[in-house]
């Protein structure tokens, strides 16, 4: 989901930014810790889960697409050079019974060296976390907004230096603890098919989130596993 440019309204006390959303927001919170690339993190709950918004800071770099090499006459195979490889049935059965394990996706977003000199920060990235139910309330850590965490500020809670952790209450009377990396995901990470599955689709079988890199959750006192 992407947000259009906001309507800007200046008052004697402040400047207001109004964004047009495609769904009704039940609750909105600003996370007290900035992302490593300098963005303000905004969370809002809606009828299908949570949306995380990174506003301001350094932009994500666009991935350069290298053109495919042109096929030349020299690279075309000659009929005399063609080789036919025959696989035996035993090899095929063995490969089918022992498929190669897929490597977990590791997101490595790249950002511009400097943030744009713009008086009105733009939306850098958004991330939808589908819970399959409405999120009515969001609770974030009660602390003074900060850009960096000192080494001794949160002794024993090192995860707060790299992840945002917040709680949400749903219309189904369920409460979830959600952990998401502070760094906004790359566009390649958001394009993965597994991110379009319901976070709670396998809730009856396991508390493990189906979003391998973003959106780890825990219900009640059950702790979600962290794959990052």
Describe the structure.
- Residues 63-79 have a biased composition (Basic and acidic residues).
- Residues 61-107, 199-228 are annotated as: Disordered.
- The chain has 228 residues and is mostly beta strands.
- It has one domain (15-60, 103-219).
- Helices cover 6% and strands 25% of the residues.
- A 4-stranded antiparallel beta sheet has the order 3-4-5-6, with no helix packed on it. A 4-stranded antiparallel beta sheet has the order 7-8-9-10, with no helix packed on it.
- The longest helix is centred in the middle third of the chain and has 9 residues, at 89-97.
- The protein is globular.
- Mean pLDDT is 73; it is low at 203-218 and 220-228.
Quick take:
The chain is mainly beta and about 230 residues long. It has two helices and ten strands.
Beta strands, count:
10
Structural class: mainly beta
Q: List low-confidence stretches.
A: 203-218, 220-228
Number of helices: 2
Radius of gyration: 23 Å
- The shape, in one word, is globular
Helix content: under 10%
């Amino acid at each position: 989901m992407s947000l259009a440019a906001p309507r800007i309204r200046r008052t004697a006390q402040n400047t207001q930014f109004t964004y047009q959303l495609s769904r009704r927001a039940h609750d909105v919170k600003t996370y007290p810790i900035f992302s490593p690339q300098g963005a303000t993190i905004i969370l809002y709950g809606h009828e299908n889960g949570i949306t995380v918004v990174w506003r301001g800071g350094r932009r994500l770099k666009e991935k350069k697409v290298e053109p495919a090499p042109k096929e030349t006459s020299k690279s075309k195979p000659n009929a005399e050079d063609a080789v036919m490889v025959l696989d035996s049935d035993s090899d095929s059965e063995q490969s089918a019974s022992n498929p190669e394990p897929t490597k977990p996706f590791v997101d490595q977003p790249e950002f511009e060296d400097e943030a744009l000199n713009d008086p009105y920060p733009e939306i850098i990235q958004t991330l939808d976390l589908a819970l399959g139910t409405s999120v009515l309330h969001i609770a974030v850590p009660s602390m003074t907004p900060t850009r960096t965490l000192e080494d001794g500020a949160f002794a024993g809670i090192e995860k707060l230096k790299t992840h945002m952790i917040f709680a949400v209450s749903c219309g189904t009377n369920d409460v979830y603890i959600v952990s998401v990396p502070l760094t906004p995901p790359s566009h390649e990470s958001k394009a993965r098919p597994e991110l379009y599955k319901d976070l709670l689709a396998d809730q009856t079988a396991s508390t493990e989130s189906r979003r391998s890199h973003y959106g780890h959750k825990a219900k009640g006192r059950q702790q979600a596993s962290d794959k990052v």
